[in-house]
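[job 4471] stage=fold_predict status=RUNNING
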Amino acid sequence: METNNQSFPSVDQLEKELDKLQYKKRFGRVMRSTVFYLVVVAALSVLVAVLMLPMLQILGSSMSDTLNDGEIVVALHRNLKQGDIVAFYYNNTILIKRVIATEGQWVNLDEDGTVYVDGEPLKEDYITEKAFGETNIELPYQVPDARYFVMGDHRAISIDSRNTAVGCVSDEMIIGRIFFRVWPLSGFGRVQ
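[job 4471] inference complete, writing structure tokens
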């Protein structure tokens, strides 16, 4: 007579094995849900950063000494007013300039580069040197409806609304108002 030498697991061993399987199943669910939430949070962060608070790197010197080449700034889209620094699309590039006048206002320049808006000289503490620059528009110039007249702070080299190559900026071209510098850390803070 043959005997069967197989031993069956005890109830304790079966319970331990069942606990291991249930733990693996719970762990898998927790990991999947954690990864799902991380992906959702990352996607929302990217959407907010791109649509509401885009970060831009300054390239060039048309806004120096206010903003310098290589600095990183944050923009926020909201209603613009005279004196705001704005980023806007122009020929598949992004330009950054300062709003000098809004729709309906009259802009004029004299030979030394003093800017007049509606006949009053503009107080421009943010520029270090006045310049007439590359101006080919007929002055005085009235800003068209739904447009902004913009100029760079480094007037001698900036190509801006004084030139028909750029002209006035429409609202749909605007990315946002530059309001905060994040890099370099030595310049961290509000931009004015």
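[job 4471] summary: The first helix runs from residue 11 to 52.
[job 4471] exit 0
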